[in-house]
């Protein structure tokens, strides 16, 4: 098989890239290790910056997010048992974020790809990438017991943190990593959200909490927990009790409980691989960087990588210019590091750290107090939250 761009991974990065390239008349094939249903079963964050919504529209898959996405003007910080609204809309001159689950977004992209008859190989095993240092890269994989090869002009490594692409170039990569001493226990539940008009981030002496939503009838909640806790340790009742104890009394009284439809514990990590380009191989999304979920930047960073990469590939084919490809890594990393900084900062501000002594704790309290009482500090939070300019 021959194509122009071989894309490894059918997560949001790979699917969105495939769609944008197809719209520009560039052939692409996606090779994915898992089945489509498996990919759709992964529950992840669901807060979109405006650049991400705009890109979905550009890719021709913006109708449902525009119809069903829930626009948020405000976030709330809860600490010391008191809620503090941050008017991100007002502080940023009218910018907002949209609540729309990654699962829904992936669904929209998969549906569009199928309707257009674009080639996607699911359940491909032993995927390997070759010769991206020269001009004729290839991708090899096995499917149903047979070996296959794709010849291509470029390879897009959209295969997530555990993928094969970054692994293949590991000797040329510089890695930066920070692992946090706790995890998030997340619960998805079909009840109306406790706070339908704002995402609520809580810092209490019992640890971090987050109240989010997928729709007016589906809520997503999290509490900070020890990273080696097991889901089995957390009955639904224990989760609801713990969440309520971390909120202010009024919000706690309003939480509607129900049976969880998903419950999982995720570790928190900051990670960046530099550079993001190796000859004709380009890394995008989680393959190149991970942020802790505080601030919901992961999916949005993946989308902006894909915006830069699709733009650069289109420029290559249409205008015979490699300027965009040559600056891809540098442009992405500039934005990536700002989101890394913000996610690390918000994580540090909102969690309880097991090793923080009295001084660190008082400094955190002072910073929270400053943040909600200074327009300058609130604005800095708000402009990062809605997404920094490209
Ligand atoms: N061969 C083929 N496909 C692979 C391989 C491999 N060796 N390894 C991994 N994959 C696939 C995974 O099965 C997955 O479907 O690559 C895909 C990567 O998808 P994601 O992990 O969702 O990464 P990305 O598309 O970059 O999306 C970033 O997802 O993790 C969140 O916070 C992150 O929201 C952000 C978004
Ligand atoms: C979510 O809805 O899953 C979510 C929202 C905000 C975050 C992280 C996750 O910061």
Care to describe what's here?
The structure is a single chain. By secondary structure, this protein is α+β, with helices and mostly antiparallel strands. The chain has a domain at 5-49 and 100-177 and 269-345: 3-Layer(bba) Sandwich (FAD/NAD(P)-binding domain), CATH 3.50.50.60. 39% of the residues lie in helices and 29% in strands. The chain has 13 helices and 20 strands. The protein has helices at residues 12-23, 36-41, 50-58, 63-68, 88-91, 102-115, 164-168, 236-246, 249-254, 298-319, 323-350, 358-373, 375-386, and strands spanning 5-8, 28-31, 47-48, 70-72, 74-79, 82-86, 97-99, 120-121, 125-130, 138-143, 146-151, 154-157, 174-189, 198-204, 207-215, 218-225, 260-274, 277-278, 281-283, 289-290. The strands form four sheets. An eight-stranded mixed sheet has the order 6-5-14-15-16-13-17-20. Strands 8-2-1-12-19-18 form a six-stranded mixed sheet. Strands 3-7-4 form a three-stranded antiparallel sheet. A hairpin with a 2-residue loop joins strand 18 and strand 19 (281-283). The two termini are 36 Å apart. The relative contact order is 0.17. The mean pLDDT is 97. Bound molecules: adenosine-5-diphosphoribose and P-hydroxybenzoic acid.
